[in-house]
């Protein structure tokens, strides 16, 4: 009678396999959770949960980018206020911006904060050309004014060292500063 022995798996090998299984499952959960978190924080509803953002949402809703256009298109906050020049850059900027927004929501007084100076000083830091170009492919469409045509052609040729938001200052938020002022005046 021959004795057949099943080969025994060493403890180290068992631990390695167990670690690999947990690693794969953990990575899958992390990837799925990350995707869910990115998507769930990409909406205007999420952004306006911070009190200081409420008047900006109101101004955005009244603008072309908030859906007041013939096509009914609505851009979300992240469509303009995050770079679209690479996924890692997008996520890093999203994390930094989100952390900054949370901090400011707790530590600034919206009623006394100088929103006009802040917008002027930081507009180019939180509006990205790569975001504009995702939707605005044709910068010289039929019907553009001659000044717009000259400016956009200069931009496209690389002759104008400007960003979109330098000329289109408050394009995503109609009457932004007036809306903010009205919002905080009502709170006083």
Automatic annotation (TrEMBL):
The keyword Transferase is assigned to this record: no
Residues holding heme 3: 132, 135-136
Cofactor remark: Binds 4 heme groups per subunit.
Binding site for a menaquinol: 94, 101
GO cellular component assignments: plasma membrane
InterPro entries for this protein: Cytochrome_c-type_ET, Multihaem_cyt_sf, NapC/NirT/NrfH, NapC/NirT_cyt_c_N, NapC/NirT_cytc_sf
Co-factor(s): heme
Molecular function terms, GO-annotated: electron transfer activity; heme binding; metal ion binding
Binding positions for heme 2 per the UniProt entry: 77, 80-81, 173
Residues covered by the NapC/NirT cytochrome c N-terminal domain: 13-174
PTMs per UniProt: Binds 4 heme groups per subunit.
Residues engaged in binding heme 1: 47, 50, 53, 101
Membrane-topology descriptor: Single-pass membrane protein
Assigned keywords, A-Z: Cell membrane, Electron transport, Heme, Iron, Membrane, Metal-binding, Transmembrane, Transmembrane helix, Transport
GO biological process: anaerobic respiration; denitrification pathway
Ligand binding (heme 4): 164, 167-168
Matching PANTHER family: CYTOCHROME C-TYPE PROTEIN (PTHR30333), CYTOCHROME C-TYPE PROTEIN NAPC (PTHR30333:SF1)
Family: Belongs to the NapC/NirT/NrfH family.
Protein name per its UniProtKB record: Cytochrome c-type protein
């Amino acid at each position: 009678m021959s004795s057949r022995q099943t080969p025994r798996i060493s403890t180290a090998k068992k631990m390695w396999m167990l670690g690999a299984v947990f690693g794969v499952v953990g990575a899958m959960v992390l990837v799925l959770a990350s995707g869910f978190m990115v998507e769930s924080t990409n909406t205007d509803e999420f952004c306006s949960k911070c009190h200081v953002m409420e008047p900006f949402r109101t101004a955005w809703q009244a603008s072309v980018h908030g859906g007041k256009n013939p096509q009914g298109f609505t851009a979300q906050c992240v469509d303009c206020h995050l770079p679209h020049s690479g996924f890692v850059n997008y996520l890093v900027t999203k994390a930094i911006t989100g952390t900054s927004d949370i901090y400011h929501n707790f530590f600034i007084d919206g009623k006394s904060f100088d929103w006009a100076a802040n917008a002027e000083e930081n507009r180019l830091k939180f509006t990205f050309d790569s975001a504009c170009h995702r939707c605005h492919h044709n910068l010289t469409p039929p019907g553009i004014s001659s000044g717009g045509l000259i400016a956009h052609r200069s931009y496209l040729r690389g002759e104008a060292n400007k960003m979109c938001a330098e000329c289109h200052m408050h394009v995503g938020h109609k009457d932004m500063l007036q809306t903010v002022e009205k919002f905080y005046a009502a709170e006083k």
